[in-house]
Amino acid sequence: MSAAAGSFPHVLVAVPTEVGEGERRVAAVPETVGRLIAAGLSVCVQAGAGDQAAFADTAYAEKGASIDADPVRLLGSADAVLKVAPPTHEEIDRLRPGAALVGFLDPVGHPDRIRLLAQRGVIAFAMELLPRISRAQGMDALSSQAMVAGYRGVLMAADRLPKFFPMSMTAAGTVPPAKVLVLGAGVAGLQAIATARRLGAVVEAYDVRAAAKEEVASLGATFVELPLEAQDGTGGYAREQSEGFLREQRSLIGRHVAASDVVITTAAIPGRPAPVLVTEAMVGGMRPGSVIIDLAAESGGNCELSRPGEDVLYDGVVVTGGRNVASAMPTHASALYARNVANLLLLLVRDGAFAPDYDDEVVAGTCVTRDGDVVHPAARGRA
Ligand code: NAD
Fold this sequence. Notes:
Blueprint: E1 12-15, H1 30-38, E2 42-46, H2 57-62, E3 66-68, H3 71-77, E4 80-82, H4 89-94, E5 100-103, H5 111-120, E6 123-126, H6 141-160, E7 168-170, E8 173-175, E9 179-183, H7 187-198, E10 202-206, H8 212-218, E11 222-223, H9 243-258, E12 262-265, H10 280-284, E13 291-294, E14 311-314, E15 317-321, H11 330-348, E16 349-350, E17 353-354, H12 361-366, E18 367-370, E19 373-374, H13 377-380
Parallel strand pairs: 1-2, 1-4, 2-3, 4-5, 5-6, 9-10, 9-12, 10-11, 12-13, 13-15
Antiparallel strand pairs: 6-18, 7-8, 14-15, 16-17, 18-19
Helix pairs in contact: 1-11, 6-7, 6-11
Bound molecules: nicotinamide-adenine-dinucleotide.
């Protein structure tokens, strides 16, 4: 049942199967479907949408969702569509003008897509743009997925390292613990530190933000002190650093990289390419068998040699570039993401009807297109 753009008497929410290569997540799980239905919405899930994340159609149906095998009908009839990855052009063409779309939209990287959404008359909300304020923490999909990636990154390293992580005292002698260096101690980095510690590694970490020191120490890792000025920006993020700063940082961090069995890099600057922290020469200085996991590979890479989704072997060192790492743990990545998305959607409805308050900081902060226009400043400059 649909009504005019922006006010639906009874919102029909669609959850399509993700079509992107290697995307195994789904934007709603049975638990969140139950919550949306309890809030007065109707939910229709595409047949098989949760299969790769181990959520069966029957589990959605038990929570009250209808199941539709036809993606054209599903998208064409929905008042609100929940997605993980940005929609393809084909998916955008299937959306009903006036429908809402909630998901990762990559508004800065793909202004063309944002323009198409506006032209289609879609009211689009980008999870990347969510203001990171306390009230919105439950909707913060960048954090939930970074947390999954940080955990998974350590498992990827452990799988590639030809050594133990924990110290082992055996009849055949003592095995020393692996030395892990984490560069960038934000959400992903802190989770990587905690995971590497749980596996028994000795962990060091470095970040350019002053607050990171205490957080790293609270997880039982050693903060690498470098004689460099802190690079705090706004909103708890790092500011973009000068090439001179990064050159100095690389020269100071080099000996820590060389002494590590595993380096996990997670350093990022919002809206900018990832800073290069590990050069080819630094990789060459590591012991054969060492492993680098570059979780920033998709945004330019913290290591000069990393390629997203590939293992590059260089002088006996494996350099792995992360690519959609959270999707490799689709059950929990989906469960967390689905809660983020459901929390945002519930902010957009009142009494079962779509009624976004565009004066609300969270609503205004995430909305990229409405009434045929690109309305978000971060996307507008580019679309
Ligand atoms: P991010 O993904 O943008 O960056 C990851 C980390 O890389 C950051 O900690 C950053 O300081 C670091 N970094 C940047 N340049 C670096 C360099 N040259 N060397 C080493 N490290 C470098 O950040 P994030 O993980 O999304 O979050 C960053 C901060 O925001 C954290 O303090 C986090 O706790 C905070 N945060 C707050 C909220 C909230 O209040 N709702 C939500 C999420 C994150």
